[in-house]
Q: What sequence folds into this?
């Protein structure tokens, strides 16, 4: 895990299942633990960007809905409500460790327009120069199918490429990539290191995500492919694991490491 230990600029992506309880309400203990580790990473001299899911899920919880809505206007409404709550909590907890955060909401059309993409990159660069932690989410309140990223795993890989990150850490509700679904196969083995993402890796990833989130392992594999092509090292690890980020920075072999490809091998 030296690739993560030595990384200077790191994007951390945290999913809805890590941030919330099954009710959709925020998991305060989990968020406080996550923020404490991120604040300590900043104190070590790391440059951080946090890609945080959860706006729609938190909105669902605050409204007392039984399930994530399927229609676009309802999802947009939930996102509008949940994003306020998310940023309030992040700002409050990070400020306890004397760190400043900012909110960056993106849609795909911004990234696909060269001039607007350059503006986004300039904004990220200046925020990092100012020692700020940008907190990124898709702008779900206005996003429709034509301008959606699809999921925040893809968004995290795009952000990692935009900011020229050294590493991307994807925190999920599973320990990493297994050779088969561990929920169905007790003998499944964790794949510790992936040098190349081929069909065997994709087939091991499965398909389905959680009821409150949008992604699954397959979306994380695709994000890893996007990032590693740019030489960015990627780790998928369990966000509920105690001290998960500390363990990664201590070089412990946890999760699955996808090795960034050198330009000569890309």
A:
């Amino acid at each position: 895990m030296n690739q993560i230990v030595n990384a200077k600029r790191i994007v951390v992506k945290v999913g809805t299942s890590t941030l919330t309880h099954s009710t959709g309400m925020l998991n305060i203990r989990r968020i406080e633990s996550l923020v404490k580790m991120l604040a300590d990473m900043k104190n070590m001299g790391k440059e951080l960007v946090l890609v945080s899911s959860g706006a729609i899920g938190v909105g669902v919880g605050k409204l007392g809905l039984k399930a994530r809505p399927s229609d676009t206007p309802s999802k947009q409404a939930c996102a509008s409500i949940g994003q306020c709550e998310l940023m309030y909590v992040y700002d409050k907890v990070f400020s306890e460790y004397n760190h400043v955060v900012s909110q960056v909401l993106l849609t795909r059309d911004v990234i696909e327009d060269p001039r607007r993409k350059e503006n986004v990159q300039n904004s990220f660069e200046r925020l990092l120069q100012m020692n700020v932690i940008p907190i990124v989410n898709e702008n779900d309140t206005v996003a429709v199918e034509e301008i959606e990223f699809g999921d925040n795993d893809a968004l995290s890989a795009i952000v990692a490429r935009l900011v020229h990150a050294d590493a991307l850490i994807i925190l999920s509700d599973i320990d990493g990539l297994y050779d088969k679904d561990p929920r169905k196969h007790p003998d499944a083995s964790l794949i510790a290191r992936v040098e190349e993402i081929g069909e065997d890796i994709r087939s091991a990833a499965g398909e389905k995500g959680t009821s409150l989130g949008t992604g699954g392992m397959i979306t994380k594999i695709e994000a890893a492919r996007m990032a590693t092509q740019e030489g960015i090292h990627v780790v998928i690890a369990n966000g509920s694991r105690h001290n998960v980020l500390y363990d990664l920075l201590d070089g412990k072999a946890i999760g699955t490491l996808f090795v960034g490809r050198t330009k000569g091998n890309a």
In short: Residues 9 and 165 are 5 Å apart (CA to CA).
